[in-house]
Amino acid sequence: MRALLSDSFQRKLTVIDFLYDNPYQKLTTIQEYFQYNHTTLLNDLADLNSIISPCEIIKTANLEYFLHFPNNTNIEYVYSCFLQVAPEFRLLQQLIFNTYPSTEALAEALYVSNSTVKRMITRINQILLEKFSFKIQTSPLTFSGDETKIINFFIAFLKESYVTSTQLLSKEQNIFFNQLFEESLPILKFAGNIDIDKFSFYVYSIVLRFKQAGSLAFFPENRQLYSNLADYSHLFDRYFSIKTDTSFFHSLESIFFNGHYLKSYKELVFLSKENQQVLTRKRQIEQLLDYLATALAISNPNYHAIVLYLYNLSVSDYGEAFILFPKYKFFLENLTHHYPYFYDKCVPFLKKILNDKSIDRFYEFIYHLIIRWDELQASLNKLPPKMKTGIYFFTDIEHNLFMKKFFTERFRDILAIDNLFTLDSSVDLKEVVASYDLLLTNIPIPDVVERNIICCSLFPTNAQLEEIASYYSKWLTTTT
């Protein structure tokens, strides 16, 4: 839902992404990369330091900028700050937590005009319908659509805004949810080993939606989860001021039991004999697991459990898995720095399994595959990491792009290459060399003492290519 942000907030968040991936950059480099003017960029940096505090964008003595995280924060915290301050997300937060009789009342709460609220709702609805298949209706003012997707949106929004449920709930509410969690443990194993924090976000999201809607749609085939509704009704009334009904508890149950979820591998095998679509998807998942097991020469003692989990994941339909911070994409992108091309090898299988689902669902699928397969994790740890490499040939852009393609193909599995050549050719190699494991250039720099520079010919000779490979081998011994 990044597209919901105004141009100004999108620009600021893009600066955060850039500095996170490319620390210690001069102002001119950032300007050049984004094509921003000097004043706009300085104003953005000042605004960002106000938004993301106690995190901070710091300027070094060398006039380079980097993103500083205190020990008690991380990039997820920075993204959560944008959810708290961006007007569009503040509007969504108001509608999640409160009930308003009209857009005028909502405008008053947000300290904006009624026309501004209506324009924002129009923009928000375009994204909500595309990503989550529901919308905000204005008469009455509420969310309208598939209740499961609305609740899943609440869950994602709250998790990214507050990170942990203890920051969201009162002490008494947390104690109650802990009690509820303990009594729900026997059935939670079917829902992917949910922990207390996820459980609290799930249940609280249903509470908030129930407050708004008054009653929630449910499927009659859902079996009863809690044996003593009266006791739980009393406690929900005490801690959340809601008068629960049967629909509330069925909705509470449905968050853990998707109508398509299967509870055992035997059930999956049985259904695959009756349903060709189930059989096809089961085989596609097994083909991916078999391919990885063969290619990496590893076993998979948890095979049936992984197939079942991935099958259930593949048939779930809850909209996007995130609001602003693409955590699975973040996980995979950082993972592939260490395990080159692992994800690329899986993509052909994912396209068959997940069909037209979004790329973020691909990332989510691989994330769950990795964290549930111990032997795969151990095998990946043995794969060589990529060496961060900068290239700068003092020629022109086309030649530098050509050399990047050449080095990428020649050293596909060992180099992660950045092209440092810019239009004004103003890169100071003496300054950037410290940011890279290796710098490849055709410029002789005899006065630089760093040993991580290899000076190549306009096109590298065989001896120079061997030197790059040799340098990587030496570097590998210091990093593993």
Automatic annotation (TrEMBL):
Superkingdom in the source lineage: Bacteria
Keyword flag Transcription: yes
Chain ranges of the Mga helix-turn-helix domain: 72-157
Keyword Transcription tagged: yes
Matches recorded under Gene3D superfamilies: Winged helix-like DNA-binding domain superfamily/Winged helix DNA-binding domain (1.10.10.10)
Keywords: Transcription, Transcription regulation
Pfam families the record matches: Mga (PF05043)
Family matches, as InterPro entries: BglG_antiterminators, Mga_HTH, WH-like_DNA-bd_sf
Protein name: M protein trans-acting positive regulator
